[in-house]
Amino acid sequence: MPTQRQMRVNSLLQQEISLIVQRELLDPELTLTTITGVEVAPDLRTAKVYASVLGEEAAVELALSALKRHRKHVQELLGDRLDLRYTPRLTFVADHTPAQAQRIEMILHHLAQESTEAETPEDSADDTSSDSPPHPSSPAGEEE
């Protein structure tokens, strides 16, 4: 489990790298790229940067290669902006979580549609029939 310092550095790195990618790296391959998270090592010398890219797998690969090309420049900018003893060495990794979440959401939506289509008015009319025996509160035939 990350320490408080690691969590603060993770958050700070995510904010700064996001700003750098959005505003300073004028690479067209990075237009639909979002920095979704950062995990810094316990010694704060290395960090995994998770990037999500909107689009097909080819767009993801292009964006990751662009991020890897700009890695040193991003690290230099971080070194200038942040007051850390060491500027972490960045490793960019594709984050497929948003795509997986969208896929799961589509499956759940599809299942919900199927269940509402399977329910018909005839089915609900059968549920209200009075053929079921009443729940006995006292043994049958006993009167007081």
The largest sheet, given as strand count, sense and whether it forms a barrel, is: 3 strands, mixed
CATH superfamily of the domain at 4-100: K homology (KH) domain
Shape: elongated
State the CATH architecture of the domain at 4-100: 2-Layer Sandwich
Commentary on this structure:
- By secondary structure, the protein is α+β, with helices and mostly antiparallel strands.
- The chain is elongated.
- A 3-stranded mixed sheet has the order 1-2-3.
- The protein has 5 helices and 3 strands, in the order αββααβαα.
Write a concise synopsis of the structure shown.
51% of the residues lie in helices and 15% in strands. The chain is α+β, with helices and mostly antiparallel strands. The protein has a domain at 4-100: 2-Layer Sandwich (GMP Synthetase, Chain A, domain 3).
Question: Characteristics of this structure?
Answer:
three-stranded mixed sheet, 5 helices, alpha+beta, GMP Synthetase, Chain A, domain 3, 3 strands, 144 residues
What's the helix and strand layout?
Blueprint: H1 4-24, E1 33-40, E2 46-53, H2 57-69, H3 71-81, E3 89-94, H4 97-118, H5 121-127
Helix pairs in contact: 1-3
